[in-house]
Fold each of these.
Amino acid sequence: MRCVVFGATGYIGGRLVPELLAAGHQVRAVARNPVKLSGFAWRDRVDVVRADVTDAATVADAVRDQDVVYYLVHSLTHREFADLDRAAARTVADAARAAGVSRIVYLGGIVPREQPGARPLSAHLASRSEVGRILRESAVPTVELRAAVVLGSGSASFEMLRYLTENLPVMVTPRWVRNRIQPIAVRDVLHYLVGAATAPGRINAAFDIGGPDVLTYLDMLRRYAAVAGLRRRWIVVVPLLTPWLSAQWVNLVTPVPRALAVPLVESLVHEVVCRDHSVADVIPDPVGGLTPYDRAVERALTRVRNADVPTRWSDATPGDPSEPMSSDPEWSGGSVYTDVREGRTKADPDTVWDVVESIGGETGWYSFPLAWSVRGWIDRLTGGVGLRRGRRDPRRLRAGEALDWWRVERLDPPRSLRLRAEMRLPGEAWLELRVEPGDDGGARYRQRAVFVPRGVAGHLYWKAVTPFHALVFGGMTRNITAAADGRARRARR
């Protein structure tokens, strides 16, 4: 089949594309910024197109001559996400109908059963349900797959579960931890998504998908601890913690920022259990059966520990879906502040580049760790991403992925790395790291921080932090070149 994947740079989309290729399908990967696909091993095996789901013209070009449309897009972290997702779904549905697409496949969320006195659906679940309805009413046959918690290395739900359990031996939790949930392993989600492309018949229906275990969130926390080899977790359930307060705690303890934690927690307030297993009537279950919870956690942890995480929840760029990632910011005109540093090293350029590309995450930023840590906590407390996102791989980066509070905006190995700040700032900031051959056979390391202020607050912010630049940015330059020299000396022994 000719399959076009909207959301190919996201957590599920980045894993679905190679599965579709392995199944023998032709794939067109859609991205607002195709540069983000450059680091994927399958990049040269697919047709990459630039499109924005809110732009009818680019969507029409993307779906032209395609058999199946995979719709894996949502704007969860945007304030007006429901309106944006509604408009985007209609745009894609209209384009698919006009292009004569034979099927749409959409991954949504399980809709809880209606019960007297039950609280209304969270905004997140209501929006996902609405998108599914729009697609099913589009006159294009639509297979809507509905999942609850997706368990896999790098998923937001798994990261939230992992950090809560590993960081808190004693937890005070809200009542919703006793609600029942039917989690599903990401490999089983991918199985159903791939199978939906060739499921026989003209199918226009929604199907719940879930793993073999129905658990409470309390059970999930305790069983995670057992699988991870942790001591028993002591959990006290109290009635006073609201979903909003719970989300603030998740924001502080886990890498999941408040903008994402709020809708995730609000969704857990409901019991999300499959109504039936009718999906097996159109897409057979995986060979060997669905993955049990403990096995799904074990597989995810193995990938994390082996630094083998192909995609993460943070791969999706936050903000307005129509806002392009800046590929070459115009650092001219208006007010622009810069801090430029340079260092020389006897190490060869490739060795210096290895140091540069491994920056961040567990390695740190080669300067004044306390200052970076404090700034990260301030960012988390104000609802930003902080430093907890870490990095996907300890040694190699990919364009478009998250790196602590930065986004890899441009990657040109082994010469340059440009990062765009995603912390809360009164302006926009970039950090550019360059490696060049030296005149004496060594290498020259150049570092440039750029800040474009927004209003008076932006100017005041830069002036307030300038006294610390010699310590932070100067130390960073010295320590990176020193680390490169150290690696070169060890290599010569």
Amino acid sequence: MHFIPERMTPLKALRLGIDTHHELIIYLRADCPVCRSEGFSAMSRVLVSSEEHHAIATLNIVTGDLLKKGQIGFSEPAWQRLYLQNDNPIWLSHPKPVQSMSYVRAKVYGHKLDEIAFQSIINDIVDGRYADVHVAAFVTACGDKNLSNDEITALTHAMIKAGSTIDWNLPLVVDKHCVGGLPGNRTTPIIVPILAACGLTMPKTSSRAITSPAGTADTMETLTNVCLSQDMMRNVVKQQGACLAWGGSMRLSPADDLLIQVERALDIDSEGQLIASVLSKKIAAGATHVLIDIPVGTTAKIRTPEAAEQLADSFRSVAKNLGLSLQVLLSDGSQPVGKGIGPALEAYDILAVLQNRSDAPQDLKKRACMLAGTMLEMIEHVKPGKGLAKAQQVLENGGAWRKFQAICYAQGEFHIPPIAPYRYNIVCHTSGTVVSIDNRKLAQTAKLAGAPADPEAGVELFVKIGHKVSINQILLTIHAANIGELNYAVEFLEEHKDMILIEPEKEVRH
């Protein structure tokens, strides 16, 4: 039982049904005696205690008649964190000072932090002692290459220790990760069943989108249940050798999910925290061998070969410090992969590849097989130079499709992805050759259309660099769940017609 200040008269809990995303918010009347006696004001951080649980929340002041005297209102995240029912007694008090904020301030001013400092910060974030503004300060202070490799290693250790870990008691557990920035590059749901069909163990946990129109977990959620507990995950992997789950449901490096939520709001993805995020999740999930895919392109997340090599070196250095076997592959990031950009549209691409359909996007198939083959060679499952052929064989003989279905059913279900009710075609106004496609602007278009919040929303792309196009040919189709977001995406496209750059055909004079 935690401490409850007996001198205070309890307030009565009221569920307000307000979605504040993940931040814990409480609401008090402006004339509430507790505000005056404790000196609370709007945006104060308050220790909220029920008879069984406690948490730190941010206070909002209500001036209308939303609350009766003696009531305290709760946002949905706060209500669920404290496991409340209406009229439960609630006590409020001042939380202890957050000592780790001194480390955050030190990092803001450019000082290096050790593992003790990072552990203190991460523990306080996981315990809910930081408001979003505090987490944002930490995320920003660690951005723009402000973390050394030793600091990234310390941060990774801290993130692992703050959550649960899984030990499979196996000498070989494989995993892969793409650093992102390439729309439609949804290779993981193809690679996992290929490798599992080869007899490898691959307990794949993935994140939701941070700054992109879809993450692997978002896409897989249109096909099966991805919210697995650790026990469920263990059972699926025991049955099928692999899983395709959302990492946030298992408290594997839980700080990572809290950091990602703020990074998403800030629309940033710092390299140091990227490495710590990826490797903490891999190690927590029990991986021994990891393949990292870094797409490189002028409009990808990593724009130059020099930047890619620098990131790859950091990945290798930190992995070595952590005792993890890791290989980095630099890949082509000049244009989107597949046809679909957005959870459901990417899922349809995945199904087409796994089912060996004639309309399957061949670039997605080749990329997935290349990565799966690299992993097979990395762990010496096949001889050097034989990995690609082996991966293609498993895919083309139907083994990967059968394994994918088995994994989905083991996770609880397999269903067809949704289809958007609203669509708009963008056509070509000149004949010529596609010379460039802007990854960032296409991703932005898909997000304006509603992805990933609306899983059926996104962009369907019908051309690649080098394709010959003609007048009135459809270049892409915008998919949306409602007409408002469809209009937003169309307006953005009209303002950025150069996102698909076409070199007109030259007139031939006789």
